User: Fold this.
Amino acid sequence: MSAQSAKNADLTTVIGLEVHVQLETDTKIFCGCPTEPTDEPNTQTCPVCLGLPGALPVLNEAAVEAAVKVGKAIDADIPEETRFHRKNYFYPDLPKNFQITQYDEPVCADGELEISVGGERRTVGIRRAHLEEDPGSLQHVGGNIDNADYTLVNYNRAGTPLMEIVTKPDFREPEETRAFLEKLEEVLEYLGVFDASRDGSLRIDANLSLVPSDEVDDDGSIGTDVLDSANRTEVKNISSHKGAETALQYEEGRQKDLMRRGKAVEQETRHFNETHGSTVSMRSKEEEKDYRYFEEADLPPLQVSHWKDEISIPELPDARRERFQDEYGLSDEAASKLTSTKQVADFYEDVASEYDADLAATWVADELLGELNYRDMAVTDVEGRLDEVKRLVELVAADDITAKNAKEVVLRGMLDDGDAPDDIVEREDLGKTDADAVAAAVAEAIEENPDAVADYEDGDDGAINFLVGQVMGKTGGSADPGTVNQKLRAALDE
Amino acid sequence: MSDDIFITRETVEGADDGPLADTTVAVKDNISTEGVRTTCGSEMLADYVPPYDATVVSRLKEAGATIVGKTNMDEFGMGTTTETSAFGATENPVAPGHVPGGSSGGSAAAVAAGEADVALGSDTGGSIRCPAAFCGVAGIKPTYGVVSRYGLVAYANSLEQIGPLAPTVEEAAALLDVIAGPDPKDATTRDPERSAPYVDAADGDVDGMTVGVPTELVDGADEGVLETFEDALDDLRAQGVEVVDVSLESVEYAVQAYYVIAMSEASSNLARFDGVRYGNSGGYDGNWNEVFGEAREEGFGAEVKRRVLLGTYALSAGYHDKYYKQAQNARAWVKQDFDEAFADVDVLASPTMPVPPMALGESLSDPLTMYLADANTVPVNLADLPAVSVPAGETDGLPVGMQFVAPAFDEATAIRAASALD
Assistant:
């Protein structure tokens, strides 16, 4: 029974991803132009990335280094030698009307990435990951790609190093792709080769097909003949994790609906419309693409095998999470939060090295991340102020201010007004009242409230709360209520 | 007089002094010159003015050379006669009524006519050596990787090199000394150890040298050409050279392999000329594929279109293995054949061209005959080797060139052998 006729049978969804990520290097992959985004069009260009006649590409080894790091992180095979090919096609954003990319000898092959979906760990196979150059970008004026009055080309992006990561068709649910993309991004950021905040830094093509569930082997694998006989759609123009999930949910529903109605799924390329959360057919009858790949003779093959040993990568999120649980005695939840980005994890370890690990975890994972999250901010937004956050933890650890004031007054003031913690403490007079002052206030409160004292001595324990309130009033709220309670009892029980 | 040699006459002064001070240089019009239009002999680039200098042009300027103009050429280097130029043919200054050879016909003619002391050409399948032979001047095709290609508008980038043309081998070698050497802008350049300047090798001292003559490159050559070639071999023998016959079986396939590879690469290299930034970009209807097609139909000449189409075909799915891959296998075989030959001889010699210069207009209508005229030069490009063409005499008043081919990066040996005929 073919997938097309599986009208009433159970269907299994099969998804594979092609993820394009911009690698963060200072300069472009084949020339010395900066990659830093700029608003002024066509200012970060040179003869090479403009594809001027006679210009030649020279490989930026930093891009290869970044690719090798990715390869190590996904446990891929890195060949002895890697080389580049030309992918020939005409498109107005492509300066040379061919793209320099990799074909039969990609820099990384056969890797994997472990993801967690609904608390369950799964391994996603990665078929290959290769380097290529980004094309320029188009601005369609007065319409879309089909009906614009005219189109402007901006070559600033042309030549930005891209890594295309191609997974095996290992996803069975759209939500798994989201988990994969989140994990991938986390790993790339840990490696320091990717900047998610850069516009267009992540672009995803996803393909989805449905196969009869009874064709799925017990171990979850599916034969290539089964996959080949199922018509597949490729969805382009996905630019976010959520977008991938939405587009694939739509596509899954659309295909299931077609099959239920006995109609065939057409093998085609579809465009994701992010606004509507739907996919639309790009071209009704697209001829099969023939990219006429052949070797790029301008770039000699590059020996990369030794790079694998020479290039080191930092501890990756999974390993670090486990280590945080062991080393600092943190819960899985806290360790996960604290390893969500390399910057958070680095900051936590910095704080934990000087103060109590639990206190550090509370302040980084709960208070700081909580307040940032509430403000729709990330740690990257307070990058230059982490020393101030650390100072705040120091004040709390030294018992100089109360935890409550530290969070509600100081941390919020820091984030909302940009003030330094010590300035806020001084301005708001949050310094804890010293012991003598508390002792004096306790003595005063006992002397001024003989009725409450009598009630307490008669066994009415609630009277103590009244007295604590009196002391707190006298100290302007800066005393610690627990301490006051203790001191009152001590004085009264004498 | 000589109005047909330059596409653009423009004087560019170099540094005040240097090895080429007081030397005038003509530059082939596919080598980028900042601020001076670089047309490649094509309508498509008739208005293209590069914003940068090719590395070789920078080196000429630093060496004090005076550039006198950009020379005529077959469109994008695709031709053996300089007649495919969109700017008209160039007449051979030493053989009136005949072609100067190609594709660097303007550069060879400029030297032969005394319009420039020396010239730069480029050689993809013989484009320096053929016009050098036809115009009675010396020309050097360096080993692939000796001279930077940065700024050379690509025709077939795995095959081509920029090289010098000059009245004598010695002057050509001196120009090679200026332009050779690694370039960080061309990843295919190499830095072979050079014990002495190339010009020092032009001492004519061939006593004791063994010269191999590949029978495949002599059989079928024009009789007058062969007589001149044999006379030159006798001259060499008289100077102490031992001449031996060798066989290069693979060269039988070289022309086919060369054209498949060159056309395939050309189809990709010339794809950027789509009317958006080069050529006529306005006034067409249709989607952009159709507009690109119109711009290319209008901007390219017949020979360029022929080669781009054939190259596209050779790389297409279903044909790639049959043509492109086969051609690469043949290329590897040719390389190996040369390597083996050099185990027994110091240098190989053959007529540069199997025929004397054709009459103007004679070969344009017959591309296949024109392609076959490259039989002796293309194997050298397939094998990435250095070769020198030197005037060997005349047949019926038409110049005949002799080609010396040396092992990779051993320019000196080819220069030394050729200089014995200077």
